[in-house]
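Please produce the structure of this protein holding NAI.
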Amino acid sequence: MANPSLLILPGDGIGPEVMAQVTRIIDWFGEKRDLAFDVEHDLVGGAAYDKHGTPLHDDTMARALEVDAVLLGAVGGPKYDDLDFSVKPERGLLRLRKEMDLFSNLRPAQCFDALADFSSLKKDIVAGLDIMIVRELTSGVYFGEPRGIFEEGNERVGINTQRYTESEIERVARSAFELARRRGNKVCSMEKANVMESGILWREVTQRVRDAEYPDVELSHMYADNGAMQLVRAPKQFDVIVTDNLFGDILSDCAAMLTGSLGMLPSASLGAPNADGRPKALYEPVHGSAPDIAGQGKANPIACILSFAMALRYSFDQGEEAARLEKAVEQALADGARTPDLMGPEGGTPITTEEMGNAILKALDASL
Ligand code: NAI
Ligand code: MG
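Below is the modeled complex.
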């Protein structure tokens, strides 16, 4: 059987720096776990613009649709700020999301014990936290028509439309229920059914999908404003949260910060199934290209490494190996490995991007 295929798009700024550490880890799995991938590297964002005059070459787009998973670093940087909107680095990422039809955005919020003091919340509220927010990514108020700024009488009016079809709600709900079955079997759906018709439909459809197809999964409903309060009051009550594009944008950023640094946060975006039944998938750290620290060996590679762990779990059915990698990250942190973004008030000596890679590889070796 052919090896699973992986397209790596390091991108700009710290993207290539953090991806270099992921590549070492991928090689480790090939050598030590007999888990080899067919890896291709290509350009995206400013790097692709510099070479091709476009932030995503058509050939790269075509490969992204064919491979089992895409792993992306980050795009953008001051060098490209004055480019025309149509060729800005971000357009490369948006094109991938659009053409791969990545409607389900998975954002975990997980607290590593060694970093529990970093949280803005009390340690016992976040210690052991492990929740997943599933955000609908391709519809809702960011896309609905009509939209625009219009003249109305003698003033202007700005309009955006929250719009969801039943099938759009169904597919993201299924994605959340499938995920819940691999985790704590519990989903909380968040909307504003009290004041929005799209929320009424959201509540009705998520309940219908659960009753018909996932009776084994526990489903509850919560108004999104209450959800925001509950997330900072008692986040451990949740397992999987499913919500729309707008609420998901806000709630996932909020949940992410419960656990500390931007340099720690992975994400996955899943789309329609490929020929083999697996969803098209893009994995990427939540952070951007961090031009302020690029080229200095200061970037924390963990967000990108944990994104690869998500790929192992959700695209390659390697849940045990994903857990092995997550435990190695946890172990490296417990051993005191800290890039500058993870330095607490107690101080100490920070390590480089590559040294963090070394620490995680060492912990992987120790796991055998
Ligand atoms: P950013 O996420 O790049 O950086 C925000 C702050 O967090 C900076 O101080 C940075 O040094 C720090 N940081 C980020 N990742 C880190 C890591 N792995 N280790 C240690 N520190 C880290 O966001 P910013 O500064 O708003 O945007 C910079 C560029 O990145 C812009 O061109 C923006 O458009 C682009 N961007 C790209 C994204 C993507 O590719 N998905 C997402 C967000 C921004
Ligand atoms: Mg956001």
